[in-house]
Amino acid sequence: MMRFNNKWSLLILTFFLTSQCAKKSSLSIQNNPEAYKNYILAYSSGLLKRNEQFRIEFTKPIIAIDKVNQAVDPSWFNITPALKGTCSWTSINSLEFFPDKSELKSNQDYEFNLDLSYLFPEIDKSIKNISIEFSYVPVSLNYSWLFPRPELVENNTMYLSGTIETNDNIDPSKLLEAVKAHVGPDHLELKPEISINPSNPLKYDIIIRHIPRSSRSTELNLEWDESFVQGNSSNKSTIMRIPGIDDFEVTGVDESLIDDNLLTIYFSNILNATQDVRAF
Questions:
Q1: Which of 143, 156, 167, 186 is the most exposed place for a label (fewest CB within 10 A)?
Q2: CA-CA distances (angstroms) from residue 69 to 79, 113, 116, 278?
Q3: Is the pTM of this model over 0.70?
C-alpha cells in the first residue's frame, strides 16, 4: 500500500487551497452588482464595437484634476487573457482602456481585473478585487462589385471597380492580400488597387485595371476572403464575362439608389453622342 508523508500531504493540501483561493480572488461585477453599487456607477460590458474603449465610471472622484489623461498605475489592474493597450484616466472619476486593435481576437472573452483598494481604501477585502467581462465584435468585410467597363485611354481593355465596407480601420495592404483576380484560359493574374474612400474612413475603393479583351469573350474570376482578419477563411467568388474585341454589348444594369425610376447601364465599349443604343 502506498503511503504519503504527512509533511507532503499538508504541503499539497495547502497548495490546493491557495490555488482555489487565487481563482476566487476576483468577483464578477455582472454576478454581484449589489456588492459594488457604492463604488461603480457604470462600466462597459458584453460585446463592444470595434471603435469602442473599455470604460469604468466610479461613483465619486478618484483622482485630482491634474491626473486626468495620465496612465493608470499598471500594478492596479490586469487583463486576462493578456491584451496589449493603454489605460488612462479620462476624468476625475473614470478610466478607459484603449486596446491595441491588432491584438484583438474575435470570439474571445476578456476580463478586466481591478484592485479597488487602491481607489477605495475602506472597501471590504472580500470584494476589493473586481472583474468585468467584455469582448469585441468580429471585423466584418462587405464587398460590392459593379460591372466591367472599357478603359478610356487603353484600347481593348476594361476595368472593374467596387467597394469594401468594414466596421474597423484596416490597412489597405492587408485587404490586398484577400483579393485575387485572374482572366482568360491562361488565368492571367491581375493586381487590384485599394484605397481609402475620401468620404468614409470605413469604406475602401477597389479597382482592377488592364483587363484584356480577346478575340472571343473570356471570364474574369474574382475571389475574396471576407474574414481573413479573423484568422478563419471565408472565401467567396464570382465570375464576370469580358466581351470579345468585336462584341458590343451591355455588361450590366444597376438600379439607382436615389430614384427607383433610374437605371445605370454599362456598355462594353465607349459610346459617342450620336450612337443609337435603342436596340439595347
A1: 186
A2: 20, 20, 19, 66
A3: no
